[in-house]
Amino acid sequence: MAEAHQAVAFQFTVTPEGIDLQLSHQALSEIYLSGVRSWKKRVIRLKNNVITGVYPASPSSWLFVVIAILATMYTRSDPSMGLIAKIQEHLPVSQSMSSQCQAVLSAVLFSTMLWLLLIFTMRLCLKQLLSYHRWMFEQHGKMSNTTKVWVVSVNFFTTPLLYSYQGSLPNLPVPVVKDTVKRYLESVRPLMDDTQYERTTKLAEEFESSLGNRLQWYLKLKSLWAANYVSDWWEEYVYLRGRSPIMVNSNYYGMDFLFVTPTPIQSARAGNSIHSFFLYRRKLNKEEIKPSRIPGTVIPLCAAQCERIFHTTRIPGEETGKQTHACNFQGQSDGPRKTCTLIPWAKARTKFFSTGLNKRSLDCIEKAAFFVTLDDDEQGMMGDDPAASLDNYAKNLLHGKCYDRWFDKSFSVVFYKNGKCGINAEHSWADAPVLAHVWEYALATDSFQLGYNTEGHCKGEVDSSLPKPQKLNWEITPECEEQISQSLDVAQKLADDIDFHVFSFQEFGKGKVKKCRVSPDAFIQMCLQLAYFRQNNFCLTYEASMTRLFREGRTETVRSCSNESSAFVRAFEGGEAPDVCRRLLRAASEKHQLLYRMAMTGGGIDRHLFCLYVVSKYLGVESPFLKEVLSEPWRLSTSQTGVQQVELFDLVNHPEYISCGGGFGPVADDGYGVSYSLIGDNMINFHISCKHSCPQTDAHKFGSQIKKALHDIINLLSGAQPEPKKPEAGRPEVKKDQ
Fold first, then answer.
1. CA distances for 542 relative to 232, 454, 555, 619, angstroms
2. I want to staple 687 with a disulfide (CB 3.0 to 4.6 A). Which of 367, 385, 514, 675 is the partner?
3. Span of the secretion signal (predicted)?
4. Is the pLDDT of residue 731 over 50?
C-alpha cells in the first residue's frame, strides 16, 4: 500500500528560441490507457446502477412491454383504456409530426409508465415476501403450506447483482416498548436475587408507563424516515464516539490455514494474497459477487456494508470519529465531521500530520485499498509447543508490536517471515461476516487458483515495466516523537495485559451434536454457560446475531443466559437425574433458538433499548431504568464465525485447508471474549481472551472448563455415564498464576 507511482507526461525548458517541449510517448500512452480504464469502470457502474435500479424487472423487459403495447395498437385494441389517446392530446410536439408518429410516441410513453408501475409493484411484492419470517420459527423438517408457497414465490425472482436487493429489503421494525421491557425482565431474572429483581421490575414498569412511550414516538418517526432506525446511531455512539484505544478493545482478527502454509516465502505469499484481494475488489466494483444469503435458503442479506471494504479509514475526532471512503470516482465521508483536538491521536494528527510531507504520506495510507504489514516474526502452530504458539499467533494478530499495524484502516493484512498470514480489522465500518467473506475468497484464490511453483515462488514472469514501490517519508519532530512514545507505552500496557488461549477441539463436532437433535450453536452456548458457572457463576452473556435480513441491518444481541439455561445448569451441577437434565437441556436449547430467531427478525432487546437511551439523551431527560440497562457489563461476550463460501474449500479431499477462525479482545475488564467456529462435522475452534490484571479470569483455565463442559453435555445427550464429580463442595476460586 505504498504511495502511487507518479508519471511525468511532459517536460519543458525555456530557451532563447522559446519553449522546448519534450513529450514522453510512454507517459502519454499510460495516461490514455488510464483514461480508458476509468471510462470502462464508469460504464460498468452506470450499467449496474440501471440494472439494480429497475430490479426485480430488467431493462430488456421495457422493450418487451413497448413491443407488446405497439402490437395491440395494430390489432385495433386499446389496453390503455383511452390513456394513450389522452397522452397524444397533450403531447407538446410540433404540428409537423404525423398523427401516426404521435400515436407511436404516446404508446411508448404509456408503455414506460406501465413498466415503471410494474417495477414498483414487483418491488413491493418482493419486499412483502422478504418480510415473511415465520419460516424461521417452524420445526425443522416440517414446512407449512404457506412457507412452501412463499419459497416458490421468492424463487420466481432471478439471481441479481450484489446490490439489486437493497431497495426491496424491508425496514427493521421498531418493537413495542411493553414487549421489550417484558423480555428484558425475563433475561435478567437468573442474574438477580428477589430484592434486586423487584427493584428492577419497579424501574421498568415506571419507564414503560411514562417516559417509554414518549421516546418510542421519536423512534417510530425515525423508522418512517430512515432506512434503519438503529445502524447510524450504533456506528456513531458505540464505535466512532468510543474514546478507548481501538486496538484490542474494538478491532478483531482472522487466522490463516491451521495445518498448512502454501509457501514459506513471505514475499510470494504477500504477492499472491494481495493479488487475490484486488481480484475481489474488481468483482466488487462490477457487482459480480452474488448477494450473501442465509445458508441453505434463497433469503438475501443486506450488502450495504460491502461498499466500504476497500479504501476506508477511520479518522479520529473531538467527540466522535468519522469514516472516510475514497473510491475511483469520488471521495466521500460518512459520519459526523468534527474537528479533532482532544484525544491524543486526533490531537497529534491535527498538529503534526495536517500539512506538508506528513500529510501527503498520511493521505497515501488513508486512501489506500488496505494496509499490509511484512512482519519479521514467525507465527502459526509450530515448534515444540504448538498450543502455546497458537496463543502467540492470536495475540500477535490482535495487536502485533503495537506499532506495526494501521488499526484505523478497514483491514490490515499481516504476512509473517515463514509465509503465514492473518488479518486485523477495524470494526466500525462493518461486522465480521463481511470481512470474513473477503478473507475466505483471498485464502482460496491464493492457494487453489494462483498457486506457487515447486520452489514456493509465485507463478508467472516478473513484469519489469511495473513501477517500483516508493518509500513514504515523514518529518518527525521531537515533540511528535514524544507523543508517539507516550501512545506506544499506553498500547504496550494494554497489549501486555491480554491473556489469550486458542485451541482446536477435534474429539467431536457439529455432526455428533446434530445426531442428538440439538442445534450446534445452542449446544455450545449451553457449554459456555456451564463452564462459566463452574468457574464463577451466572453472568450477563452476549452472543452476536445479525439483522441483515433488513436494510442496512448490522447486529443484535442474543442474551444466552436465560431462565431455561440456568435451570439446566443448576440441575446438572446439582446431580439431578439424567432424564431431567436432558429435558431441561432441550428446553434451554429451544429457548436459545427462539431468542436467536427473535433477534434476527427484529424482536431483540438491546438495540431497541439502546436507541431509546439515545433519544433520551437528545431530549435531555434521565431514565434510571435505561441508565442501569446500558451500564450492565457483558462479562461473557461470544460470537460464532461460520464458513460462508463452503464451495471454495474441498474439506473432503483437502481437509487440511481449514482456517482456525478469528477472535477479539474481552469486552469487560473482568470478563471473557469467546469466538468459536464449527468446521466440518468434527472440529470446533475456540478463541478465548481475558485480562491478566483481573484475578477472576484465566483464559487457559476457562478453556479447560469449556472442554470439560463439551464432554459432559455430549455424554448427557448420548446417554453415556458422566465423569465422577470431585468431592470438593462448591465452585473453586480461580486465582491467577503469578
1. 21, 47, 11, 29
2. 675
3. none
4. no
* Pick from 676, 670, 679, 678: nearest CA to 688: 676
In sequence order, what are the beta bridge partners of 22?
Answer: 11
CA gap 328, 322 in Å, rounded: 20
Residue 419 — pLDDT band, cuts 50, 70, 90?
very high
Decide the pairing of beta strands 541-546 and 636-640.
parallel
d(CA 666, CA 699) in angstroms, rounded, equals 10
Q: What is the Cα Rg of the chain in Å?
A: 29
Q: Of the listed 311, 399, 427, 501, which one is catalytic?
A: 427
501 is annotated as an active-site residue: no
Q: What is the SS3 string spanning 632-693?
A: CCCCEEEEECCCCCHHHCCCCCCCCCCECCEEECCCCCCCEEEEEEEECCCEEEEEEEEECC
- Do 697 and 670 meet the contact criterion of CB atoms below 8 Å apart? yes
Residue 364, amino acid = C
Q: Average model confidence (pLDDT) for the chain? A: 86
The per-residue pLDDT for range 44-98, each reduced to its tens digit, is: 767 777 777 778 887 888 888 888 888 887 777 777 787 888 887 777 766 667 7
Q: How far apart are CA 494 and CA 692, in angstroms?
A: 10
Distance CA 7, CA 658 (A): 43
What pTM was estimated for this model as a whole?
0.85
Contacts of 542 (CB under 8 A, 6+ apart): 557, 558, 559, 560, 634, 636, 637, 638, 667
CA distances from 100 to 35, 71, 159, 414, 731 (A): 44, 14, 40, 69, 91
pLDDT digits (tens, 9 = 90+) for 297-336: 888 999 999 999 999 999 886 556 666 766 563 333 344 3
Burial of 155 (0-12, 13-18, 19+ CB in 10 A): exposed
